[in-house]
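Hello forum,

I keep getting stuck at the same step: I have a sequence, I want structure tokens, and every attempt I make locally crashes halfway through. Rather than fight my setup again tonight, could one of you with a working pipeline run this one for me? It's a single chain of 84 residues.
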Amino acid sequence: MSLDFPNFEKMKQECPRAALYWRAGDMLYYLGLLSGIFSVIAFVGFRTTSLALTVVGSASAFVLGIFLKRKSYAIAERSGCKFD
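Reply #2:
Ran it on my machine without issues. Output:
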């Protein structure tokens, strides 16, 4: 579970659009993180170009997830949602 999950619960009630961005960003963040770790482990063992492309894809998902979570907080703040 994400450490900022309580903020998501608050967003879900006060600003559903921001919560949608947060949810998508959270899923992409963890998808990129976990697949990146497994890709690096597999890359050390196999050393193929396709695994290198998987690492790039994982990094892209990770960065996009971070971007969407930041955007969700910006949307929530513009809507008047305050966090602790």
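The chain has one domain: 15-77. If your local run keeps crashing, start a new thread with the error log.
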